[in-house]
TrEMBL record:
KW Signal (keyword) present: yes
Top-level lineage group: Bacteria
Pfam families assigned: SBP_bac_6
Keyword Phosphoprotein: no
InterPro entries: Ferric-bd (IPR026045)
Keywords on record: Signal
Naturally occurring in which organism (per UniProt): Novipirellula galeiformis
Listed name of the protein: Putative binding protein component of ABC iron transporter
Amino acid sequence: MPLTRFEFVFHSYAQLTAFLVLCSALLVASGCVQRAETDVVVYSALDEEFATPILDAFERSTESETRVIGKFDIESTKTVGLVNRIIAEKEAPICDLFWNNEIMHTLRLQKLGLLEPRSWNVEAGWPAEMIASDGTWCGFAARARVLIVNTEMIPNPSDYPRSVADLADKKWKGQCAMARPLFGTTATHFAVLREIQGRQATLDQLQQIRDNAVILSGNKQVAQAVSAGTVAWGLTDTDDAIIEKDLGRSVAIIYPDQASDQPGTLRIPNTIAVLKNAPHPVAAGLLADYLLRPETEDRLAMGDSSQMPLSRSSKFSPRVLPETPVRWMQVNFETAADDWENWATQLQALGLGQ
C-alpha cells in the first residue's frame, strides 16, 4: 500500500503503526514491491511548510525521477511521535531518511542502533560536534535557543533578562514562559545543561522554573504568548522568535548567557540520518547529500525560519543573527543524550512531562 502525504484517520497512533507494519510484512511475503525503487520515504520533524519546498526541489533535480514521500507530525510532540514510530517499525522499516529539526531524539535512535553509519559529504572544517562519532547522523542548518522579550511590557533594554537561569528568578514569577523540557529543543537544552551544571543542580533549577514560569506545550506557543503580551518574556528558538518579529510584533531577541562566567548560547542543528535496513538506502543517501549542500542551508537561512548555516561556503547570513558575534555553548551532544530514559522519568516526576 503506497504511502501518500496524507493518511487516513485511525482511532489511535498504535492502530496506525500496527496497520503500516502489517501491510509492509504482507507485501514482502507476497513478493509485491511496496514502492518504486527510486522512492524515498522521509520522516520530517521540520515543519512541513519549510521542508516540502526543499524536498520538491530534490525531486526535480534528480534524473531518475526520484519521488519523495514525506511524513510529518503535529507540533510540540512531533519529534517524539516520529521517533516512536521509527522504533515501532524497526523490524520492518518504512522510513528511509529521518530529517529531525533537533538532535536529542536522533541520538536516541543512534543509541538504539537504528541508524546506518555513512561517510557524510561535507566540507573540511565542519564542526566536529555536528557529526556523530560513529557516522550515523550529521547536523546542519542550526537554530539557537534564545530569549524573546515583549518590548512594551519591558520597555527598557537594561531590564531585559539575559540568562536562561532568569526563568527561576522570583521577580519574573508568572511573567516568563518555557516549553516542556521533555520534547524538542527544550529537551536537548536541559540535557546539555545537565552535563554542564550536574544532574541534581539542573533538576533543582527545573523545579524552580516549574514553580516560577508558565510551562507551555511548545516553543511556538512560548513565542506567541510573549508576542501577545500574555507573558513578558520566554525561552524559545530563533525560528519561532523571528516569525513574531517579522510580523511586526513588539519583541526583541536576546542571545542568552554571553558573559564570561556563563555557558554561552546553545546552537541546535537539524540532523539527517539514514535508517538501518532502509528500504531504499541509495535514494536516501542521495537525498542526504542534497540536504547538506550549502545551497540548502542558504535556502533555510533565507526562509521564514532564518536558520543558521554551518557551511563556510554559505553565502547568506540569516537575519536572526545579531550584529555582534555570538559566543556559542561548547557541547557534546552524545554525552548529553546518555541515560535519557531515566532523565525523562525524573522530569515527569517533577510534573514537567504533561
